[in-house]
Amino acid sequence: MRNKGRAVQVNKHLGKLADEINLYVFHSNDCFSFITNKVDTTYHKHYYIQLTIGLEKQFKCQFDDATYNIRGILIGSNVNHKLIGHNEWQLYMLINPESTLGELIKSKWLLSSEHILLTDDIVNDIVHIIPNKMAGDQYKLFFEKMKKILGKESYQQSNRDERIMRLIQYIDDHSLDELSVKKLSNVVFLSESRLSHLFKEQIGISLTSYILHKKVEKGFHHIFHGKSITESALEAGFSTPSHFTNSVRDKLGMSPRHILKDSSYLQV
Asked: What pTM was estimated for this model as a whole?
C-alpha cells in the first residue's frame, strides 16, 4: 500500500496529492524529466546523460562492476546500468548530451568517469529548488537553476564537426521512417563508412542508435498526446508496435505500458 503521508510530502512540489498518479513526466527540447516512485529497471543503456536524485531516501544503482546505495548520481551516455527505486520518490532527468546542459555536464563532471556520485549538499540543493507547482514556467526556472548548481559558469562549447551538427538538424527536421545511413551520407557528401565513423566519434553512439533514440522519443511524444501505443509506434517510424516496445525496454529498462501506467504528462 502506498504511503499517503509521503505522497503528500513529495507532492508539495507538484501541487496535488499522489493518490492515483505515481509518475509525472515533463518534456522539453533538452530532456525528459520524471518524478516517480515506481522505477525498477533491468540492465539497460541509452543515449541520454542521466541525473537521478532521491527526493527523500536512497535508491540502488548497479553497474557492471559496482553497486551503490545513494541519493544522487550522474550517469554518462551509453553506460550500462540498473536502477531500483524501493518504491520511494526520485527525480530522473534524461538529458540530451548535445544540449547546453549536456555539454556542461560532460565538461565538468564526466570527462574522466562514466558516472559520478553526487554529494548530499548537491542533492539537497536540487531538491530545494523543485518548485511548489511544477508547471511550464516553473519547470523552465527549475531547469535554469539546475544549470547553475551543476556549474554553468564552467560551460564551454565543444568543437563539433559542422557536418555532424547539420546532420542532427536534418534528422530533427525530417520523417524518421525515411532516414537511413545511406540517405544521410548523401546529405553530408560522405561515404557511409566515413559518416558512421565520424558520427560515433563526435556523438558517442552509432548513427543507427541515434535514429532509434529519436524514434523512441517521438513515439512517447505521440503517446503523451493521446494516441495509442500502436498508433504512436507506427507514426514514429517503427515497423511494428512490438519493435517499439522492445526498443523502449532495451533503452529504458521498462516497457512503455509500465512507464505510462498511472502517469501524468506536461509539455514545457
From this structure: 0.74
